[in-house]
């Protein structure tokens, strides 16, 4: 699970999700605060998060109300049994912070693939799907 604040945080979370899918070959999901606090947190009931890990992408410039929500939301994920880690963006501008989060996610996804013993570069599932859609 990758959570980010509306704006650059949720853009980065979506990128992390796709990179984890493609490079590390693992299911991955992303959501944005504050929206995830309206529905998703209900699904993280006691014991439901044991098979998941949460990465909360944080950055200077989060709306104060959203920044206030992060600790309580992470606590709920933790109570569901999910291991949670926060990643703080670096940089003085919004663009620099976004690039910081994107680069960190890209490197993390490749490293996770290598730790799992999979080559991050092949995309065999996509190749098979394209072949099937082409009728061959």
Question: What's this entry about, in short?
Answer:
This protein has 136 residues and is α/β, with parallel strands linked by helices.
Q: How would you portray this structure in words?
A:
The protein has 136 residues and is an alpha/beta fold. 51% of the residues lie in helices and 15% in strands. It contains five helices and four strands; from the N terminus they run βαβαβαβαα. The protein has helices spanning 8-24, 40-43, 64-79, 94-115, 124-133; strands at 2-5, 30-33, 53-58, 83-88. Strands 2-1-3-4 form a four-stranded parallel β-sheet, sandwiched between helices. Strand 3 (53-58), helix 3 (64-79) and strand 4 form a beta-alpha-beta unit. Helix 1 (8-24) runs parallel beside helix 4. The protein is globular. The model has no long low-confidence stretch (mean pLDDT 95).
N-end to C-end Cα span: 35 Å
Strand order of the largest sheet: 2-1-3-4
Low-confidence runs: none
What structural class should be given to the helix and strand makeup?
alpha/beta
General form: globular
Question: How many beta-strand segments?
Answer: 4
The main β sheet shows up as: 4 strands, parallel
Q: Can you give the mean pLDDT?
A: 95
Number of DSSP helical runs: 5
Radius of gyration: 16 Å
SSE order in H/E notation?
Answer: EHEHEHEHH
Proportion in helices: 40-55%
Query: What proportion of the residues form beta strands (DSSP E)?
Result: 5-15%
